[in-house]
Write a structure and sequence with these properties.
The complex is a heterodimer. Chain A is α+β, with helices and mostly antiparallel strands. Chain A has 9 helices and 16 strands. The chains are: A alpha+beta, B alpha/beta.
Chain lengths: 290, 374
């Protein structure tokens, strides 16, 4: 990885990753175990995780994310090398992939139908996604929902799921066989760990999925499960607010979002227990097949 | 080793039809770095060869095209808002650079991506312009006392303004070179010769030769060349377009002399013809004597050949970092007399050494929040 780098396929993208940091190669070996290598003649993003220069290098080493020789972010403590790679790659996709409508949302699939889960941080979106993919739903993405304006379908990424703080323990307890990468105790987001995407999700990443549900999840301590229909107009606005490039895409953005909402049942989900939430999702999938 | 991927394609977009995937790999990296992806997409689309680009690199061109198209609409809307704000104080909006190319509907605006709107006002009306813009929501971004003084005393522009709701940035200039430069041109000459912008009613742009000269003096007085190649592409586009106007080249020479901008113009023509094969009449190219007239020009040519290439590792060689550094120092040297320069650079060095970075608000990597754009 330090010299030639690693050419990796991640959904529709080819990534060329270079780093001399062992923490990065270890985490990649663990979390991207099932990912295919890509041909080394074209990469969408050539990235590098390397130590920041300067006096601090020996005292308190920091690391930098490089894209094409530029460093778009401030450096982070050395211990967060791999977390920075993941954030940086998300940033690359959100910044440069305007061929898609890019929504800040998780997306999972069952029977070819996709459930889009937009939600502000703290709503328990990643926790729910992590639980769903341990129970038969396919992971398309935990952070970025990509919709192809040409086909109206969701394009899968199948990247590791980023879990924070208590969510890490909740998922470890929920599914003891789930594989996690290293834990980073003190990031700017608190404690962070990444969950390895299920092998099947990675192998099926090239299968696009039709949007079928837009579900706004909200974890609420002690509350019974409550799944209510949302007005389409309200869902449209909330989804637009969660899209990175809705305004940027102009008419294309509007058309793609309107088509997505038209094809979907729009729902608000409040829950306190993951098992209940999964049952509700399974119910939606069964109902749609019937 | 310098690998020229994007330069040949800018010179001859039809090469795209036969390029291999590994060549596209370098083109996309260099183009993205130089902010020229949308421009290349526009070039290929114009010639009907965008569809012949292999799928993976084509996605990047399509993505960049969307950004370029949106920027054009957003820029025209923003120009109109600035025009209205200034008109309340009886001020005329004279646009510079990218915004001017869009407003004037010039071919060089195709796929031109830029971050801010530059305008030129009469120095005596600067307080009026500032008040008008402030009343419409544009506020100063550099609130540090030193920065304010640096801009107001020495520079040719106000500290950048940013709109508090829309986030759009404005650079208000009262000249095209710093007041501390050796021979700042007479800005009144530029304002008097300004012409109406074809595609943005009620706004003005510099006359064709002045537009070229401003672009040249911006590029060859500037120490930071992050957008150096894009600015050279602008110059190439302007020269090719205006060349068809009767007497353009002789007017350009006369204006360069009147504005004391012979030197940046000489460098601009030289680098354009060298890197982008811009057709320039031999007599104009030899303006001020054959090239290189002296050792300094020979050295500058080598420095600019490196500094103007994309700032991508594939587009540089072992000398590139040194070349960039020397050009950076040269830019500052031209900006201000030595005693100011030493004070200013020491301050910048101290800031970066002490961890107080000068760079504008760099987002933390998690800050990929959906942004509310214009």
């Amino acid at each position: 990885m330090s010299r030639e780098g690693l050419w990796l396929k991640s959904g529709p993208f080819s990534l060329h990753i270079q780093s001399r940091e062992r923490a990065v190669s270890h985490a990649i070996a663990c979390l991207y175990r099932d990912h295919a290598l890509s041909a080394s003649d074209f990469a969408d993003f050539h990235v590098e995780i390397a130590r920041a220069a300067g006096v601090r290098r020996w005292l308190k080493p920091q690391i930098q994310f490089h894209l094409d020789g530029r460093t778009p972010f401030k450096p982070l403590p050395h211990a967060q090398s791999f977390a920075m790679l993941e954030w940086g790659l998300n940033w690359c996709i959100a910044t440069y992939c305007q061929q898609f409508l890019v929504i800040h949302a998780a997306v999972v699939e069952r029977n070819g139908m996709a459930a889009i889960l937009p939600a502000p941080p703290g709503s328990g979106k990643s926790t729910l996604t992590a639980a769903l993919i341990q129970r038969g739903w396919r992971l398309c993405s935990d952070e970025l929902t990509l919709i192809d304006p040409g086909t109206g379908k969701v394009v899968a990424l199948a990247r590791p799921v980023n879990l924070k703080n208590d969510s890490i323990d909740i998922i470890r307890a929920f599914e003891p066989t789930a594989v996690f990468g290293p834990e980073y105790p003190d990031t700017h987001k608190g404690r962070v760990a990444h969950l390895r995407p299920p092998r099947q999700s990675v192998e099926r990443a090239s299968e696009a999925a039709k949007p079928r549900w837009v579900v706004f999840p909200q974890w609420a301590a002690g509350e019974p499960l409550n799944l209510t229909a949302l007005q389409r107009s309200a869902a449209f606005i909330q989804l637009a607010e969660n899209a990175f490039n809705y305004n940027m895409l102009g008419e294309t953005g509007f058309r793609t979002l309107a088509d997505t909402i038209d094809r979907c049942d729009c729902l608000a989900l409040r829950y306190s227990r993951l098992d209940d939430a999964i049952r509700a999702f399974d119910g939606l999938a069964d109902e749609a097949m019937a | 080793m310098i690998r020229d991927a994007v330069l040949p394609l800018l010179r001859d977009p039809t090469l795209a039809a036969s390029m291999r995937l590994s060549e596209w790999d370098v083109v996309i990296r260099q183009a993205r770095n130089a902010n020229l992806t949308a421009r290349i997409a526009a070039d290929l689309e114009l010639r009907g060869i965008l569809d012949r680009v292999p799928h993976a690199p084509r996605q990047h061109l399509i993505a960049a095209r969307a950004v370029g198209a949106r920027q054009k609409i957003a820029t025209l809307a923003e120009i109109e808002r600035v025009r209205r704000a200034l008109s309340e104080f009886g001020l005329r909006l004279v646009l510079l650079k990218g915004a001017a190319y869009v407003a004037a509907g010039l071919p060089v605006a195709r796929g031109r991506v830029f971050g801010d709107i530059d305008l030129l006002v009469d120095r005596n009306r600067l307080p009026d312009a500032e008040s008008a813009l402030m009343m419409h929501g544009w506020i100063s971004t550099h609130l540090d006392e030193y920065d304010q003084r640096y801009y107001r005393q020495w520079m040719h522009e106000l500290p950048p303004l940013r709109h508090m709701n829309r986030g759009s940035a404005l650079d208000v200039h009262h000249n095209i070179l710093p007041l501390t430069a050796r021979h700042p041109p007479d800005a009144k000459l530029l304002l008097d010769a300004a012409i109406p912008a074809a595609e943005s009613p009620g706004t003005w742009v510099l006359a064709p030769p002045d537009m070229v000269l401003h672009s040249a003096c911006h590029l060859f007085h500037e120490g930071e060349l992050d957008n150096g190649l894009r600015d050279l592409v602008d110059l190439d586009g302007l020269l090719r377009y205006f060349a068809s106007q009767e007497g353009f080249w002789s007017t350009l020479e006369a204006r360069a002399a009147a504005l004391h901008l012979e030197r940046p113009m000489r460098y601009a023509l030289r680098m354009c013809s060298l890197m982008l094969e811009t057709p320039v009449p031999a007599s104009t190219l030899a303006f001020g004597g054959g090239w290189p007239a002296d050792l300094r020009e020979r050295l500058l040519e080598q420095l600019y050949l490196r500094g103007l290439r994309p700032n991508d590792p594939t587009a540089g060689d072992a000398w590139t970092p040194l070349a960039r550094h020397l050009l950076y120092l040269r830019g500052h040297w031209l900006r201000m007399p030595p005693h100011l320069l030493v004070a200013h650079l020491s301050r910048k060095a101290w800031r970066s050494w002490s961890g107080r970075d000068d760079r504008d608000d760099v987002p933390a990597p998690e800050a990929i929040k959906p942004d509310k754009q214009v």
